[in-house]
Design brief:
- By secondary structure, this protein is mostly beta strands.
- Helix content is 9%, strand content 35%.
């Protein structure tokens, strides 16, 4: 039945505007990761149903929606073409979207969340490989199915189920369909491509590395009239073992020809051979079919890559089978050079669960179905008193017990809306509230304890919510360079910060009592400073005064950043060090309160020579160029002479200004 809905309809649970019961022809054709369209021909009927077949209106068949995008009126009726509702995304737009190291599910979610206007599409995927790339000014269909789209980057097979998109490693399954092809058959067109076949390989590794045996042979070598020899370079292979395994992997992927079979069941049905191929009418999109090629004596694995179905007869009229073509979900688009390191991707948890459930249900033979008053039982014996494996379905719900009729039922769906199971495998879980003890990633590297409030990231960063403590492993690197400057409190670190592997702290202020690091840097244009502790006020220049010990990189004689380093008690008492001089500045030997004198040292050293302490209000400068102390406080060094005693010690320093410094030992 084909229903027709208005273009703005959102509820498709009713019959729509009309039911198109008089179609002259109707077909749905889908290609794997390709087009998905419905074509319909309808007569100009007296009830006027044909008049609703206009661009924009929506058709529904087998639960799938198609929007009409083209109509053509003929003398006897009207023909329309409709695309699957997925293609409504052609009209939306993505200005910019950054995919940052996301798997396929994350990428699809980011894409569908970045459109110009909101929509009702959701997505999921079981492909775990990650990608990083940017999207710029494209529509979502291009982004998903285009040359550099999601399918091209991640591989897999797209299932378009109305407004739900599923990108799966494999959307079909191998149902055991086997056909034998050995001659030209009316209704079947075979295309055999031998261009990529290799049965004897000469692998060459890095720097010309070769195997002692030189050549590797495929197990299918004898299936062809003669060996098909190729030499392939694997520049990433640096050892014989890796080169050998890489070459064997390459042979296994290239020893079979690429084939394509186009089956026209209308033509085939006219022949005797039809009975041998009728089973192909039962395959689904993406299913794997084994074709036994009698001429080559090999089995070829093909996928159903295109299916055309007659909606009026509900039968497949055309099916196209194609060889496996490498894709990113199974090493798709990997270069030959990367074969040495490629790993076969495991099935996703969801697909493994589906396969397991399918196997269990298909292989279940025997058992007893018992109808009792108000319930249906499926058991391993006829008697409820002796049965141990019991499926019980009644008004209360559906449940399974492995311990008899009365349970307990560890797997159940109850009438009040509860689902009970030891294991739940799903592709997408949508919930208002998830109540659980611990959320854990599949690899176990990330866990969130919802009861104990512990976040554990790979054992490297552990946050304990009960104490507020964050524990870092030795190799953790913290960097806040990209945080906005107006974010409150991000400049405060725990007390103390002791990890020597913190390499970047790019904030204007850090409040903590202890920092142990290999290097402190500043990008300030003036007054970069390290305050040791605060015992006074801050001056207008941002430098502490009044006895605030600090280390800064400025000097008050108009010297800029990087010229010198100053170790200071305050602006009146400090040690100044530059590339060619050392200055001791003792402006005032009274304390900040004006009453308590500083205790001056009894002397200091110039090189290996001890010199007596200068008096109050004195600047003492020693320069490496042979000039000396600034004794007259004019900011310029004086020329000076000295007198030594018999032991070579300086006893007297005399300046040209007449000042004399006496050194006492």
């Amino acid at each position: 039945m084909i229903n027709l809905y208005n273009s703005t309809e959102t509820d498709f649970s009713h019959n729509g505007l009309v039911v198109l019961s008089d179609c002259k022809a109707a077909f749905v054709e889908e290609e794997l990761n390709g087009k998905y369209e419905l074509e319909l021909e309808y007569p100009i009927d007296g009830r006027g149903k044909w008049a609703y077949l206009v661009e924009g209106n929506i058709l529904k068949n087998d639960g799938q929606l198609f929007r009409i995008y083209h109509k053509e009126k003929t003398l006897t009726g009207i023909k329309v073409s409709a695309r699957h509702i997925f293609y409504d995304l052609l009209d939306n737009f993505i200005e910019r979207c950054n995919i940052g190291n996301l798997n396929a599910a994350g990428a699809l979610n980011a894409i569908l969340s970045s459109t110009q206007y909101a929509h009702g599409y959701t997505s999921l995927s079981d492909i775990d490989i990650s990608n990083t790339y940017s999207i710029d000014k494209q529509n979502p269909v291009e982004v998903i199915l285009g040359d550099n789209g999601v399918v091209a980057r991640y591989g897999g097979e797209l299932v378009r189920d109305n407004f739900t998109l599923r990108l799966l490693q494999s959307r079909g399954m191998d149902r055991g369909v086997l056909i034998s092809y050995g001659k030209n058959v009316v209704g079947i067109e075979e295309t055999l491509d031998m261009g990529s076949v290799v049965t004897r390989l000469l692998p060459v590794g890095k720097d010309g590395l070769m195997l002692p045996e030189k050549y590797l042979d495929s197990t299918l070598l004898g299936n062809y009239p003669h060996p098909i020899v190729r030499s392939v370079e694997f520049p990433d292979c640096t050892s014989e073992d890796v080169l050998r395994s890489t070459g064997q992997s390459y042979l296994s992927q290239n020893a079979l020809p690429l084939v394509n079979y186009s089956v026209d069941f209308i033509e085939l049905s006219k022949t005797e051979e039809y009975k041998h191929y009728a089973i192909l009418e039962t395959v689904y999109m993406g299913d794997t079919v084994t074709v036994r090629h009698s001429k080559l004596n090999i089995d070829l694995k093909c996928k159903a890559i295109r299916i055309k179905k007659n909606l009026l007869t509900n039968r497949i009229e055309e099916v196209e089978l194609g060889s496996f073509k490498p894709n990113l979900a199974s090493s798709l688009n990997t270069s030959i050079a990367a074969l040495s390191s490629q790993q076969a991707q495991d099935k996703s948890d969801l697909q493994a669960a589906i396969d397991n459930a399918t196997l269990q249900i298909n292989s279940a033979l025997g058992g007893y179905v018992v109808k009792r008053n108000g319930e249906l039982l499926i058991m391993d014996t006829e008697d409820i008193n002796t049965a141990t494996k019991v499926w019980r379905w009644n008004e209360g719900g559906l449940g399974y017990s492995g311990t008899g009729y009365n349970g307990p039922f560890r797997t159940a769906i109850t009438a009040d809306g509860h689902i009970v199971a030891d294991f739940v495998n799903t592709g997408l879980l949508t919930a208002g509230i998830v109540k659980t003890g611990t959320l854990t990633s599949k690899t176990g590297k990330l866990s969130i304890g919802l009861d104990d409030e512990v976040l554990n990231i790979g054992g490297k960063i552990i946050y304990d919510g009960s104490t507020g403590q964050v524990t870092f492993a030795p190799t953790v690197v913290l960097s806040w360079a990209n945080l906005p400057t107006d974010v409150a409190n991000v400049n405060e670190l725990p007390n103390p910060v002791t990890d020597e592997h913190i390499t970047t702290i790019a904030r204007t202020e850090i409040s903590t009592s202890t920092i142990r690091v290999d290097q402190l840097t500043s990008n300030e244009v003036q007054n970069p400073i390290i305050r040791l502790f605060n015992s006074g006020s801050i001056g207008a220049d941002g430098i502490p005064s009044d006895g605030n010990p600090a280390i800064d990189a400025t000097f008050n004689n108009l010297q800029g950043i990087g010229h010198a380093v100053r170790f200071k008690w305050n602006d009146s008492n400090y040690l100044y060090i530059s590339t060619n001089e050392v200055t001791f500045y003792f402006k005032d030997n009274e304390g900040p309160d004006g009453a308590h004198p500083y205790v001056l040292p009894d002397g200091f050293y110039v090189g290996s020579q001890k010199v007596g302490c200068p008096p109050k209000n004195t600047v003492v400068t020693f320069r490496a160029d042979g000039t000396g102390f600034d004794t007259n406080l004019d900011g310029l060094p004086d020329s000076w002479t000295w007198v030594k005693d018999g032991s070579g010690r300086i006893t007297t320093l005399s300046s040209v200004s007449g000042r004399i410094i006496t050194v006492n030992y």
